[in-house]
Amino acid sequence: MSTLYPRLPMRAARERFKDLRERSATDMSRWYDTTHLAQYFAPTGGTRATQERLSVLRFQVVETAKAHGFPSPLGRSVHDFDTALARELHTNMDLVPVEAAERPMWAFVALVLLPDVAVWRFPDPPDDRVLATDITRHVFGRLWWRAELTRDMARLDDPYHLLGVFPERNFDQILARRRSIGGSPELIRALAKEWPKDWTGIDETDALRDVLKHLMRRGAFQDLYGLPEAPLRLEVARTISDVRHGGAHSRRAGDLDDGPVGRHARR
Amino acid sequence: MAGRGNRAWPYRRVRGDLVKASPWTIDPDTDGEREVPDSLPDWDYQTDLRLRRRISLDSAACREVAGLPPDASLAISVRWNALPSLLRGSAAWLPLRDDSQEYLVDVEIEGERLGGIVNLETMLVLAAPDKPRPAVAHLVGSNLWNDQIEIRLQGNAPLFPIAQVPFSESSLPYKAAWFLELGADLNATALGAIQLLVNQEHPTIVAAVGRASSPNDVDRAVLSALRSDVVRTMLERALEDEAFDMTEVFEKDTLGAVLQGLMRTYMSSYMDDGLLEIRRIRASDPPMFATIVQAATDLLADER
Fold it and tell me: Which domain holds residue A198?
């Protein structure tokens, strides 16, 4: 059975965020809790996290942060910290996706349980980093989702081996398309597995944007989300190759591979 | 069922009359098998979604209409997407055979990936890339026919907070059927302060709760006893608390406000003097109080 975490209603979260902004970093280390008067839980679907369990989670996250310099400034190890924490949150929280889509739950984690680590990761955070008005921007929520969407159960020895394929700003492009491509773990894993390591001479961020654009356009006609892994990876690999070699700009679903035949062909 | 409207497709598709698809049924091969409703208010995400439909089609005719060669591979694909998780994925992939026109499509989607609104789309697709031809689909997965349904999982009404746990692994008596946890703070949010724990190791209560939407006679009796006991426990919790009074103002959705609501619903006949009379009965004659609650909650009324 999965674990249900306390949820912090938006009004209480905003009050807590206001308090957070008025506190110094030193104050922050003592300003955490495992419970909040306004908290509530999902009515069904799992076992509620006890205060002891929440304390353990806090301890684990703080230890990971300490391994990356906490409370000293994070500096250059941001990517390493995010990758380590994504793996840890996904492994230890025992969350199911539908619970992880609950914004008030992430607001509790950032504003009540781990405000000091949240502010250390994003000093002077804008509200979406802690309130979870957008989970794909939330200090912790986005990392859990990154692990969920890239977890590869075909690699039981290291199911999180794809976590580091895309740097944060690139993965943000995928998360920003959660209503389409970014909601399909199979497609994201195929993309991560086929993504070339070497992008010498090409802007990797631009290339990813183009690949996502072309996959979304083809998805209107092609059932990319329903394909078994083997043909899906072939399709993704072909799209990446097209973008790398500049061919994808002229291709649309229904166009032809071998020559300029039909009204949609532009080659 | 909705199609995709009047989208302009870059290739010929299969006419709707060539694919005969039955409505989806839920919980196939069980007593509860039925046509899937628009809404499943009792669903929670520990429940996997098990659906079935039959599809009848002539693959040769479909290929011909779509302009595909006789050896083109086709498949039935079922995919889903859900709100609020925004997840999507494949639920079934059935390659078509030349020797069969009848297909049974079984789908089982993990409940923990769902919740909110689920959209289930059935498609007839090209199962392998084909040689490009003008106005003919050639990319693998090309959508040749589709329909879709939407199912709302859980209604808008708030559910009573409930969790199944093994009592033998807790401090609770392991033979007990349920335990109602109630927080100490009347101003705490009710959904955080109340939780009904059901003993996972007690088959009768587990079965009754699991079949709450379509209970048999035994389930109905068990659920009636559960409901009555929960109400009595909550009313007693309120009456024992000196800070609880009907004139006290509690914010909406707090434990105090929920207890006031319960008191009004079940004890209104005894509340001419506020809580004085009912508190007196509870203190001086507990068996009478228990019987009053039985009557107020219609204990076993359905079974008479």
Answer: 179-266
